[in-house]
Specification:
The protein has 675 residues and is an alpha+beta fold. The chain has 26 helices and 21 strands. The strands form seven sheets. Strands 1-4-3-2-5-6 form a six-stranded mixed sheet, with helices on both faces. Strands 19-20-12-21 form a four-stranded antiparallel sheet. A three-stranded antiparallel sheet has the order 8-7-11, with no helix packed on it. The structure holds 2'-deoxycytidine-5'-triphosphate, magnesium ion and manganese (II) ion. It binds a DNA duplex (10 and 14 nucleotides) through helix 11, helix 13, strand 10, helix 18 and helix 19.
Length: 675
DNA sequence: CAACAAGCTA
DNA sequence: ACGTAGCTTGTTGG
């Protein structure tokens, strides 16, 4: 069935709008798009909106007509809503007093991402309408000549004044296009069967659709910060920066922009004749230059070069100030809260991403001297609770690989990262266990971190480094890089790697099996069936032929294929971790289809999740005596058993993994304390 | 404006 | 020849 683009109709009459509402109810669906005063999700308002209940019509409506949407449609659980970038439009509608719809919320960005995760940057309406349907969506700039420095919303507002007919035509086309792309992608997703036997449409409808709404609800809550905490850091940091820059200029004999890698490179490796130690990646152009990064500076600092020492100091401060002090303050909005934009389609592994600002890379308090996470606090009368999975991807590796030794270690409650630390750094496992225990005691006694015994800090650092080593090695790190990371010779690094893999022989098999699979099929998937396409695993191979002199040249992956092989292993684990957290978050929220008694209890207790940091859920809860123990019960029940109803929910035949899942819970007045 | 280097997180 | 997955800042050179 194919429809021409219908004529547009402008609706500004409640009686006519009621008729449109009847059409929506009859079709039980509508695509909606909003034109707004700006792109601030907390503040901006709707200046015109469009609705499309079926391909034969398209309406542009005045803001007043939202009363009918609100009064008659939005609370009807049978009506399904289609958007392109649902969280944006839902926010704008909420700003106009229209609540979150009771029915399913679809988003073509998510559909297109699920269809092909590698279309990054091309999931938008213009691109999908063209790529899937050869539909040409107007750029606003072709309808109205955008003036210099004018934003899209401003240009649309001007169009409304200068050429109203074009404005309603442009606006209603987006709702119509959204509907068309939605319908097309529904069919495409339906026809892809995944490795678990589910179709992509199953995953979309049963997991992604409710998740869109859940994430929107969470994102609207925002996260409170103490602006004064950050503001108080500014002055001292700037003074320190200035002081350090003067020291550098004195030692160098002239003024240098310490933020300019190029000026520094000319000074160090040109003028001063230092030997380059590392080279930059050279990016797309492959233009590799001597590097001035921290690793390099460390080496020269250790040789007693004051320029390197001073520059390192500058770097540490500049980064934190630019990104986390000045940067975060720019994003503080209503009620001293930061509202990050959470992208459900932000990664190729089904993890989330967080932008403007990114709240998934706030410095870890363990070695952040400015304790930026202390600026993150709860609303009045509340505290923060962080729940972070223990060694999540190691646990999942144990399950996915079936490695008996790793499963045994986990069943006994031992810590895989500590075990790896013991091997890598040659310290007794028991000492690291004891250090962690001691750290818990010190934390409870409110002893400041800089007063902890050096021994304890060091042992904890071993665990953290071993975490990095363990994942790096599993995901394909080479001997040279590991040698660099550990500060040992290449041979020693190779031996350490051997020893780590020998602990868990099943890991090698898991890695090679995954490689074989991705080479054979050009794609891999996580435990639920979510797909990652890796065509380079099939194309970029070298060798496999006989030379003229009769020698066989072994087949080996080229650089692109080798990369795809590493990515394939990582996807199966990281992607499964993302699934664990997705399901847990929806059970916590008790969102559409994920209603459960634990969620009811959490709601009753006033528990509200406000952030996800990949394997951590951060939440606010009311300050009441003994409430933590009450929250912990349902929270653990949910997070440690995310697959408990998978047979009923998705028809998959397991409820638990071969290993348990465990979480660490921490609470405090600040995010730093909650860790 | 895009490309790049650097550095922060999981 | 390269652990994976991200985002933001500041400089540079068109
Ligand atoms: N350098 C790193 C750090 C983390 N991760 C991935 C794997 C981890 O399992 C997951 C979560 O990060 P955590 O810091 O929470 O690490 P773990 O959950 O493994 O350990 P912990 O018990 O300390 O939480 O992110 C990774 O791939 N590479
Ligand atoms: Mg974590
Ligand atoms: Mn964790």
């Amino acid at each position: 069935m194919w429809y021409q683009l219908p004529e547009t109709e402008y609706i500004d009459d409640p009686i006519r709008m009621e008729q449109v509402a009847r059409e929506v109810r009859a079709h039980r669906r509508a695509a909606v798009d909003t034109e707004t005063t700006g792109v601030d999700r907390q503040k901006d308002l709707v200046v015109m909106w469009s609705i499309c209940p079926h391909p034969g019509v398209r309406y542009a409506c005045s803001p007043e007509m939202l009363k009918v949407l609100k009064g008659e449609l939005i609370d009807d659980p049978r009506i399904e809503w289609d958007f392109t970038n649902a969280p944006f439009d839902l926010s704008m509608l909420e700003n106009m007093g229209v609540p979150v719809p009771a029915g399913p919320v679809h988003c073509t960005l998510i559909m297109d991402w699920l269809w092909d995760e590698n279309r990054r940057g091309r999931h938008g309406l213009k691109e999908t309408a063209w790529d899937h349907l050869k539909l040409n969506m107007d750029e606003l700039s072709t309808v109205v000549k955008k003036q210099r420095g004018e934003s899209v919303p401003d240009a649309f507002a001007r169009l409304m004044r200068e050429d109203f007919a074009s404005a309603i035509d442009y606006a209603s086309k987006d709702a119509w296009g959204t509907q068309a792309v939605h319908d097309n992608l529904m069919l495409k997703l339906r026809d892809v069967e995944t490795d678990t036997g589910l179709s992509l449409l199953d995953l979309y409808l049963k997991v992604e659709v409710p998740y869109t709404k859940m994430l929107h609800i969470m994102a609207r809550r925002g996260v409170r910060v103490a602006p004064s905490y950050l503001e108080d850091l500014r002055g001292p940091m700037q003074q320190e920066l200035d002081k350090v820059a003067r020291e550098f200029a004195r030692a160098a004999g002239r003024e240098i922009n310490l933020n300019s890698p190029k000026q520094l490179r000319d000074l160090f490796f040109g003028e001063l004749g230092w030997d380059p130690i590392k080279w930059t990646k050279g990016g797309e152009s492959g233009n590799r230059q001597p590097s001035c990064d921290e690793d390099t500076l460390k080496l020269y600092a250790a040789q007693g070069k004051p320029l390197a020492q001073v520059l390192m100091k500058h770097r540490g401060i500049a980064k934190i100030k630019g990104t986390y002090v000045d940067g975060l303050l720019k994003h503080v909005g209503r009620e001293d809260r930061i509202y990050t934009n959470i992208k459900q389609h932000g990664t190729v592994t089904t993890r989330l991403s967080s932008v403007s600002p990114n709240l998934t890379n706030i410095p870890n308090p363990e070695d952040d001297i400015y304790r930026i996470r202390d600026a993150f606090i709860a609303r009045d009368g509340h505290r923060l609770m962080a729940a972070d999975y223990k060694q999540l991807e190691m646990y999942l590796l144990a399950h996915l690989s079936g490695d008996v030794r790793m499963q045994e270690v986990i069943h006994k409650g031992w810590d895989v990262h500590m075990g790896n630390a013991a091997i890598t750094y040659g310290v007794p496992y028991e000492d690291i266990v004891a250090a962690k225990k001691e750290a818990g005691r010190l934390e409870a006694a409110d002893v400041p971190h800089d007063q902890w015994p050096e021994e304890v800090t060091q042992l904890l650092r071993y665990r953290r480094n071993a975490k990095g080593v363990g994942f790096a090695v599993t995901y394909g790190e080479g001997d040279a890089a590991l040698a660099e990371q550990l500060g040992v010779t290449k041979q020693e690094a190779a031996d350490t790697k051997e020893e780590l893999f020998d602990q868990y022989p099943g890991l090698r098999d898991f890695i090679f099996d995954t490689h074989d699979d991705v080479v054979a099929r050009g794609q891999v998937s996580n435990l639920l069936g979510y797909i990652r396409h890796l065509p380079e695993a099939q194309s970029d191979w070298k060798g496999g032929y006989w030379t003229k002199s009769g020698r066989y040249v072994q087949k080996r992956p080229g650089p692109w294929a080798a990369r795809a092989l590493r990515q394939s292993v990582n996807l199966r684990v990281q992607g499964t971790a993302a699934a664990v957290v997705r399901l847990a978050q929806m059970f916590i929220e008790g969102i559409d289809g994920y209603e459960n008694e634990h969620a009811d209890r959490l709601r009753e207790l006033g528990y509200e999740q406000i952030l996800q940091i990949h394997d951590e859920v951060l939440a606010e809860y009311p300050t009441e005596k003994g409430i933590e123990a009450e929250i912990e019960k349902p929270l653990r029940a949910i997070m440690e058993h995310p697959f408990h109803d998978l047979p009923e929910r998705l028809g998959l035949n397991f409820r638990e993994l071969d290993v348990p899942l465990r979480i660490d819970i921490g609470t405090g007045d600040t995010w730093a304390q909650a860790h």
